Amino acid sequence: MSSHTRVKKDKEIIGDYETQVKEIRNQLVEQFRCLEQQSESRLQLLQDLQEFFRRKAELQLEYSRGLDKLAERFSGKIRSSREHQHFKKDQNLLSTVNCWYLVLNQTRRESRDHATLSDLYNNNVIFRLAHVGEDVIRLFKKSKDIGVQMHEELVKVTNELYTVMKTYHMYHAESVSAESKLKEAEKQEEKQIGKANEVSTSLMRHDDRPQRRSSVKKMEKMKEKRQAKYSENKLKCTKARNDYLLNLAATNALVAKYYIHDVSDMIDCCDMGYHASLARTLRTYLSAEYSLETSRHEGLDQLEGAVDAMDVRGDKHRVMDMHSQIFCPPTRFDYQPHMGDEVCQVSAQQPVQTELLMRHHQLQSRLGTLKIENEEVRKTLDATMQTLQDMLTVEDFDVSEAFQHSQSTESVKSASSDSYMSKVNVAKRRANQQETEGFYFTKFKEYLNGSNLIVKLQAKHDLLKQTLGEGENNSPVTMLPPTLPPKPGRMRKPRPRSIFNHKLFNGNMEAFIKVLTAPYLAPMWSLCVHSPSILQPPPILHHSHPPSSHMASPSLGLPRPLPRPISTAFGLFSQA
Amino acid sequence: MSSHTRVKKDKEIIGDYETQVKEIRNQLVEQFRCLEQQSESRLQLLQDLQEFFRRKAELQLEYSRGLDKLAERFSGKIRSSREHQHFKKDQNLLSTVNCWYLVLNQTRRESRDHATLSDLYNNNVIFRLAHVGEDVIRLFKKSKDIGVQMHEELVKVTNELYTVMKTYHMYHAESVSAESKLKEAEKQEEKQIGKANEVSTSLMRHDDRPQRRSSVKKMEKMKEKRQAKYSENKLKCTKARNDYLLNLAATNALVAKYYIHDVSDMIDCCDMGYHASLARTLRTYLSAEYSLETSRHEGLDQLEGAVDAMDVRGDKHRVMDMHSQIFCPPTRFDYQPHMGDEVCQVSAQQPVQTELLMRHHQLQSRLGTLKIENEEVRKTLDATMQTLQDMLTVEDFDVSEAFQHSQSTESVKSASSDSYMSKVNVAKRRANQQETEGFYFTKFKEYLNGSNLIVKLQAKHDLLKQTLGEGENNSPVTMLPPTLPPKPGRMRKPRPRSIFNHKLFNGNMEAFIKVLTAPYLAPMWSLCVHSPSILQPPPILHHSHPPSSHMASPSLGLPRPLPRPISTAFGLFSQA
């Protein structure tokens, strides 16, 4: 170092060195402790995870059993019920009941999936975690072995440094001592030479000269000896210093390597595969959870499909099919001629002709008034039904808000506070709905009375008109073809649901009905031809809501407009 | 009817008619019964659904509580743990521990969501079902009222038909009787006329003539009377028949209307809103279930993100940061000149010069051999690590098969039978892995010994080379700049994770490190410049697997190659 630095004493240097080495050794011990602590933390984490999944598996199994019991309770009830026997055949299954069956299916599915989850936790996830734990323990031991080897190397190299430093100190001390001895000799020699010169110039005595010469020689010899000793020691010191400097470089390089790379490598050995194995374990858990979700979603989609396919008309027809005897139109009342009366049609000869003509005119004008009145009632009915329909199909079922997890607070909104379910709101809505419904029924009765009267008068009117117009050549009643009417069940065979739902108004339904009904209905329908507004299916069947609203809510359980003659496929009047 | 049909007697006609009416009335009664039955079925279904959701709400709540208790148990443990205090700050949170926290978060989230589900079942779904039930009862009553009105109309019209038919029978009978009386009168008149003609031609007596004339006149009068009676009755009969025929038409029209439309309308009244309301209820259920699923999925995605972000290097650095005192490189060993020794570098003057030169050459050749040998060991190490890595990152975590629901059978595959978890398979794999790992450690020790030796010899070699080449003008040791070394924790500040994960090799990391390390490391790294293969981070840090494999599995917990100088940011040798 530069000359102005304080010169350290040997003991100080050794002391500093030993402190430095002790600090390193302390760090090495602490590094092992840190590694051990980390392994312990990992083992604790793995143990916690195992305990967690063991308990979660139990929860899943409990939940699964609960769901299974629940599904089984209602499935058993269904199996033993009367309805089930009725609806056993798929084509007879009501769309609403189908939804209920799918709710139960979904419950069974959830039950099975949660049992599977439990199984996977117990027989896969927990095993993996145990294996990761074994690996942590084993790798910690092996890494510590590696670390011990590294530390031994550090101890060895610092010991060597100590040795070469001490050697340098020794040789340098000897070199310094030899140098001072040499210097002392040189000083004495100088003194001797000075004395000799002084003597030779001032006081030269023969007796003294040889004595003095021998002492000078002796002095020179000693100086040479000391010079040789000094050179030898200096070389030894140079070698020792070189060794010290080289070992210093090697030691610093090794210490640097240890701190920069080896300690990190030791930790890497300890970490080997830990993250990968833990990740695979958690991915197993995720795979299980995601799979459960997929399965759950499939089930919910099936149920949603069934809800979409809920079909008020289809269900009505299914029920009527199943009770075809009850809903089958009866044989028509035929004209029964009395005691061989051969007249079997309305007679419009004189003297009744005038009266019939008058009656016909009266009927015509009465019908005109009645139809206008009833048409007004029908319009009110339609509007009321539209209002009811809006109430019945309000989309108030979105509860997703209740599942919003706010990031800041962990609270969730109370589900019962949502707009639909506030008690006041519900009560108001229901009161409103029932009021409208009551009004609808009042109007419907009024409409029914009107249309009943109209249908009777119309029948009489049409018969009179025919009689008065065509004379007595043929009667619409007696000319009915003797063909058998179609059987109710056979004719309205259930169509594939997809067609039923989606092609109701743009499929070939019209043509189908035309073909079906034409031969049987022509005479009967001729009664209605002149008053299509009356004998059309009454309002709840023919509301004039726009087609777009049907498309938007295809199965909301509300009656939909249908081409009028569909119900005639029932077989108008059976003549069997 | 045509003349060849058998003439029915009055009683037979009345009997037939009454049978026919009775059949219709039976049907009407059965129709009501059917409507009632349907309403009862609906009420039963609604009751079952309510009971189902009530019980399911209980299950959800139980499950929710179990999950909450489970999460709380471990969360409490974490809060009170020592590690938590350590890792409380986000930047100190280990990526593995973060996953564990997210597993618990997910559990808490599931707990809250299932509680919400329970709440929605109890306070929304069940209420809706109850309302649907009320509607069913009310609408059945109102529809039945409508039906009663319809039936009364049918009864009225058939009664009327009966009356007009009876009237027709009566008048026809009278007409027939009047006709026969008239015919009898005509026959008698004919007989009288015939008799008169016979008398007038064969035996004409004056006395008889006025007597006969008066009897003929009487006869004629009777005939006229009978004729008038007959005409009157015939007219009455015609009117009655016309009335009968008109009423027949009206009755048939009304019966047809009832069977074709009215009965269907009555059912529609009963159905009003049932499907729509039930659909809305089930959609509420579906909305809740789908929302739970969405929330669940969000949580799982968060966890998956954390698993993806698992970061073995980042965690290592976090641990080392937290224990910076332990891993901070110590002060370097400085050259300590002995007792004012002013020489502070390797001396290459004669007579040691030759020896140093020889030593330098020996070191050079020894290093050459050692490096070749160690490079071979390194290659073996790399290959072994690659094998290990393949074992540790095998993608064996897909358990989705366990959740496949076969449509035909309801069984699911046993989760424990899957390929990963078969016991034999697992044991074999683990034995294989441990064998490879053992081999890796053996080779790593060998490599460590080699590289330790090389680093020491290299340091000496480089110092000698410098000394011999440059003379004694400057020493690399004493010329170290007096700058303070960087503090370990400060320099390797945690970078944003995204950069750390994705931009490790193509970001500006290289430049960053160059800037960081240049001032401090130049002299130290100069020691390594000549042997880059040795002082590179040892194999577990620099495996030469292709970059594509990192991209595919970015965080599998395996060490990844990193630009060598990163660990030097630790602050090479602190000189404080």
Automatic annotation (TrEMBL), chains A, B:
The keyword Isomerase does not apply. Residues 182-231, 469-492 are annotated as: Disordered. Residues 182-193, 204-231 have a biased composition (Basic and acidic residues). PROSITE patterns: F_BAR. InterPro entries: AH/BAR_dom_sf, F_BAR_dom, FCH_dom, SLIT-ROBO_RhoGAP. Gene3D superfamilies: Arfaptin homology (AH) domain/BAR domain. SUPFAM superfamilies: BAR/IMD domain-like. Residues 19-315 form the F-BAR domain. Keywords: Coiled coil. The keyword Coiled coil applies. PANTHER family: SLIT-ROBO RHO GTPASE ACTIVATING PROTEIN. This is SLIT-ROBO Rho GTPase activating protein 3. It comes from Oncorhynchus mykiss.
